[in-house]
Structure formats: structure tokens, C-alpha cells
């Protein structure tokens, strides 16, 4: 099952969400179709034309946005004077609700990849009446255990890259929360320090998470690289702004703790068997704690959306939900 054809938006705009932020949004497909909200990863990656091809454009009204600080939204996180204190999970969840009401949508399917799956899960848990279904891939829940795995645990698998990753940090910052330590460097008033830290962070990202050439190439754009690294480390270094229930000691974050709140929402979890996030068993535990979910494990697929088996599973889900 292949991707649907490329399509262009039939409408777009900038939504004033407060705090000096304006969020860029687009709509594609059938204006009278089933609404679907697409949540990109990162945090800070920005919306992708690729992901809309997972939806039948004749059946869906496809809504995308660049979350605060990235893509075409303003101000961009790459600018040193951008206030990151108003870029948190709570702020972005509020933005989703503002956009839903702005577009006159009552309920929508929510699709998310990676960080987008964390955001989609928390959105459904806190606003269950407006989410009709969930389709999630490269699944994460935003727990501290997942951050610890991706920043320190994978050092045993990629020792050479990890040595370079640690070397950019001051020696007294190498034993704690590495994302928080990198965030402090990226907030330095010295632009050279900020740039070295952003480059080191994205080098670690490319060393540990296999990605198609188009995804790797974006890190060569200085604005994207800085905005992405600044946003990811800001979220990862602050428990994804999910609160004290995000406990790294047992791997149980607030999203997994509250999985039962999803019981009335059908959902499909499409997970690559080679996604390193599987090392913690989070996706399996989420599926078993969420009665209305289906778990589809795709052999030989990693973290993301592009493997053929993952594409087929996601499209099978969106096609099925289009008929609900």
C-alpha cells in the first residue's frame, strides 16, 4: 500500500495564540471530509508535506501546523531573543484547541510521530471529547526514562559518537541530565558556544536515529539546526513539561500513568521493531493499559514514518478510520 499523491494546501494562515506567538497552519484534501490533525515530531521539526500523504485526500480534511517556535511559526526558536518560557506542552495543547475552534472543527482524528505522539496522547487525555481516533508512530510517551535512554543509555551502543557528545559539555555537567546541560549551553550569550552545542546535539541525533537523507540534510540549515536543538533540549531538559509524575526511576511518566483515560478513543500504534524506544517496553505497556488500542509492530523498521511496512500500516489505519 503506497502513499497517496502529493497535494497542496487549499487554505493556510497565521493564528495569533498569544504570548507574542503566531502559529502557521494549513488545510489540505477535502474541505468537507473527516477532520484529521497531524502533529509533527521534534519538538521543533515543523510540519511535513510527506505526512499528509498517509491520508486519503478525498476522505479527509487534513490540518497541519508548525508548533510554536518552528517552521513558519513566529518567533522562531533559532532567534536568541525568542522567549522559550512560553513554549511548553501546556501552551501547545492550548494552541491546538484555539486552532480547532478557529477552523470550526468539532472533533478530529489525531496523528502523531515521535514527540507528536506524546503530544497527541496528552491532548486526547486532557481533551477526550474532541479526539475521535489516534494514529501514532515512532511512539513515545515523554517519560524521563525515555530521555535518559536516548541521551545516555544509547552511549553503550554508539560509544564513539557518545564520547564526542559528552566532550562538548563541561566536565561537571556530564553526570546529570544531559539534555538540560545542552539546553544551558544553547542558552549561552556566546553565539559560538550556542552553535557548537547545537551542532553536537544534532550530530548525536543523526548518529543514533537512522533517518532518510532529507531529514539529515535539514541539519545543515543553521536556523533549523539551532531552532531544533534549542527546542528539543528545552523540552527534554524539563520533563517535557509534563509534571512531577514523570518519574525516571520506574519509567512511568504521566502519559503512561493516565493511559486509562483513553479507554473510549480507538487508536492504532505503529511501531518499528528496530526503534530503540522499544528497549524500555513503553509502547507495549501503553497498548496494554489502553483498552481501545491496536499495536502493529513492523519488522525491520525503525523510528519514524518512512519504512514501507510502517507506511502500509498507517494508511491501513487512516483508511479504516475514514469509514467510521
Please give the radius of gyration in angstroms. Answer: 19 Å
Approximate shape: globular
Structural class assignment: alpha/beta
Strand/helix succession: EEEEHEHEHHHHHHHEHEH
Query: How much of the sequence is in beta strands?
Result: 15-25%
Oligomer status: single chain
Mean pLDDT: 93
Q: Could you tell me how far the N terminus lies from the C terminus, measured between alpha carbons in angstroms? A: 20 Å
| Count of alpha/pi helices | 11
User: Largest beta sheet, briefly?
Assistant: 8 strands, mixed
Number of strands: 8
Helix content: 25-40%
Widest β-sheet, arrangement of strands: 1-2-4-3-5-6-7-8
Low-confidence stretches: none
Brief overview:
The chain has 324 residues and is α/β, with parallel strands linked by helices.
Architecture overview:
The protein has eleven helices and eight strands. The protein is an alpha/beta fold and 324 residues long. An eight-stranded mixed β-sheet has the order 1-2-4-3-5-6-7-8, with helices on both faces. Helix 5 packs antiparallel against helix 6. The mean pLDDT is 93.
Amino acid at each position: 500500500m503506497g502513499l497517496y499523491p502529493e497535494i497542496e494546501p487549499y487554505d493556510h494562515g497565521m493564528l495569533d495564540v498569544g504570548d507574542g506567538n503566531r502559529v502557521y497552519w494549513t488545510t489540505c484534501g477535502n474541505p468537507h471530509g473527516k477532520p484529521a490533525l497531524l502533529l509533527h515530531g521534534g519538538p521543533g521539526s515543523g510540519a511535513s508535506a510527506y505526512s499528509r500523504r498517509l491520508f486519503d485526500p478525498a476522505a479527509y480534511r487534513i490540518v497541519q501546523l508548525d508548533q510554536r517556535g518552528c517552521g513558519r511559526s513566529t518567533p522562531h526558536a533559532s532567534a536568541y531573543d525568542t522567549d522559550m518560557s512560553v513554549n511548553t506542552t501546556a501552551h501547545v495543547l492550548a494552541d491546538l484547541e484555539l486552532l480547532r475552534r478557529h477552523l470550526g472543527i468539532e472533533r478530529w482524528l489525531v496523528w502523531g510521530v515521535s514527540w507528536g505522539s506524546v503530544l497527541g496522547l496528552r491532548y486526547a487525555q486532557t481533551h477526550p471529547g474532541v479526539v475521535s481516533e489516534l494514529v501514532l508512530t515512532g511512539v513515545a510517551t515523554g517519560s524521563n526514562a525515555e530521555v535518559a535512554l536516548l541521551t545516555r543509555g544509547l552511549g553503550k551502543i554508539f560509544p564513539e559518537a557518545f564520547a564526542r557528545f559528552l566532550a562538548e559539555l563541561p566536565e561537571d555537567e556530564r553526570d546529570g541530565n544531559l539534555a538540560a546541560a545542552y539546553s544551558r549551553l544553547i542558552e549561552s550569550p556566546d553565539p559560538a558556544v550556542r552553535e557548537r552545542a547545537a551542532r553536537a546535539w544534532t550530530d548525536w541525533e543523526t548518529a543514533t536515529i537512522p533517518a532518510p537523507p532529507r531529514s539529515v540534510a535539514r541539519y545543515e540549515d543553521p536556523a533549523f539546526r539551532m531552532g531544533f536543538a534549542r527546542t528539543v533540549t528545552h523540552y527534554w531538559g524539563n520533563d517535557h513539561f509534563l509534571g512531577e509524575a514523570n518519574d525516571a526511576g520506574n519509567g512511568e511518566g504521566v502519559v503512561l500513568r493516565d493511559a486509562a483515560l483513553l479507554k473510549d478513543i480507538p487508536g492504532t500504534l505503529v511501531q518499528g521493531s528496530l526503534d530503540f524506544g522499544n528497549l524500555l517496553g513503553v509502547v507495549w505497556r501503553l497498548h496494554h493499559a489502553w483498552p481501545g488500542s491496536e499495536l502493529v509492530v513492523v519488522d525491520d523498521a525503525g523510528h519514524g514514518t518512512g519504512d514501507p511496512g510502517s507506511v502500509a500500516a498507517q494508511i491501513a489505519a487512516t483508511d479504516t478510520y475514514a469509514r467510521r
